[in-house]
Amino acid sequence: MNTVLQILNLAGSLGLFLYGMTLMSESLQKVAGDGLRGFLASMTSNSFKRVFTGMFITAVIQSSSATTVMVVSFVNAGLLSLAQAIGVIMGANIGTTVTAWIVSLLGFKADISILSIPLIALGFILTMSKRQKRKNTGEMVIGFALLFLGLTFMKESVPDLRSNPETLAFLQSLTDWGFWSVLIFVGIGTGLTIVLQSSSATMALTLVMVNFGWIPFEMAAALVLGENIGTTITANIAASVGNVSAKRAALAHTFFNLFGVLWVLILFKPFLKLVGIIITGLGAADPFIPVTQAADPEASSVSMLYAVSLLHTLFNVTNTMLLVGFTPFLVKIVTYIIKNPKEEEKFRLKFIQGGLLSTAELSLDQAKQEIIHYGDIIMRQYSFVRSALTQPNDDEFNVLFKKISYYEEVTDKIEFEIAEYMNQIGEEEISAESGSRIQAMYKIIGEMESMGDSAYNIARIMQRKRLNKIVFDEPMIKNVLNMFDLLDKAFTVMIENLKAGYTKLNNIENAYDAEKDINKYRDMLREGNLLNLGKNQYDYLTGVYFMDIIAECERVGDYIINVSESIMEIKS
What we know:
Layout: H1 2-42, H2 47-61, H3 64-76, H4 82-95, H5 97-107, H6 113-127, H7 132-157, H8 169-173, H9 179-196, H10 199-211, H11 217-230, H12 232-239, H13 244-266, H14 268-281, H15 297-323, H16 327-337, H17 360-389, H18 394-427, H19 432-467, H20 474-504, H21 509-534, H22 540-571
Helix pairs in contact: 1-2, 1-7, 2-4, 3-4, 3-12, 3-13, 4-13, 4-15, 5-10, 5-15, 6-7, 9-11, 10-11, 11-13, 11-15, 12-13, 13-15, 13-16, 14-15, 17-18, 17-19, 17-20, 18-19, 19-22, 20-21, 20-22, 21-22
């Protein structure tokens, strides 16, 4: 009964550790906000920068899983190329080793739990602030305190095998099967990391086990290798509902870590021996002597902690150095395995299929990319409208009309789904700036949905014109096509402004110029229509259909300028 209670205490302590790490990681991402996102997006111009970026961000937010999921979402949103993402993921693998060193250096030698309660008090005071950044900082402080509090409870709940050798004796029995034992512990490390969804938590558990002599150094090394396989699952889960590029980035992460584990398993004894030589060379005890058999158990356990942390770092640094030059080859492999989808996928949501990201700011970036994609779909709808205008064959016109009608349904659906996604973001804790962005995005998708409706309205006018046997002469068709040219120009400006966003868009003179051109041309055609009617160049009904199309086009121009104005509203 006592053993069961100890195991339950260990599980609870691990849960507290995990919760603290998650809270600290998420709040750090919120505190960093745009700076973190901008750093990741800009510092990827070469292999060294990519690796450094991944390493730095993971060391800061203390979660390689968070970094890889962030990278996968950036690839999904088109903000990073596949090659850039692979480099950042390689760096993330190095950055995650910082956690092991923090735990080894502070979590066992110093009693951090003494400061945990005062830190929680400080964090709570900060969370009561009205300023969002202070609240997030408070959460980060509480997360840090809970992390080390959980680690302290883990140490206290672990049974001492020297006093109770029968406790978890089955685990020690698994260490006597030679290389099979190594493979078993690789599997255990993989399984634990998949279940816990955190390689850092599994690493902390590994350090606790070696510190108390549950397992020898060789088996701890095997657990570390398993953790590096298991940690790829998080990115694959995130990518499973993403686009093709996201799936490829996650698969590249898997291949990278699997290759590393494979070569270390082949060179297992020499690699561990190298770690042992470095550790003993630095004056620490031999990590190959079990804690339970060492003359100085305390020195031996410290040596074990450093050896496992060093092995983790050495493995990831060496693996990155070996493979960073083969990034283009890795891109080719994953591109060959995961093929491009068929054409029909373009009508689905492209960027926000996977639900919310770890922070509202990152989720808003995905929504932004989806809105840009929405604009591309509307431009495609208007290309069908243009084709329908000059289509002499009734059957071909009906095919185009059905396409325009289908796209109108698609634009309605996309507006609804983006709005639903932004509703979810709005339920999270967001800054005032993020709130402004959400309000602007609601307006933008509303204007875009109206553009889709107008395209359908123009197609219906054309359909009624045909039913009434009304024919536009060549100058009228040319005038309408010129209006479509002006709309195309306005659409292009709108997409450019959406891509620039409120951070880079300083003015929207380009959008105002495009709208003025549309209004001026509409006025010119209106006057010309009255003159032509006066000269009896065509009948009144023909003029009505002609001006109905022109008026609807001018209305579209109003919707387009409203999009750019909504972007600028965020600044004010």
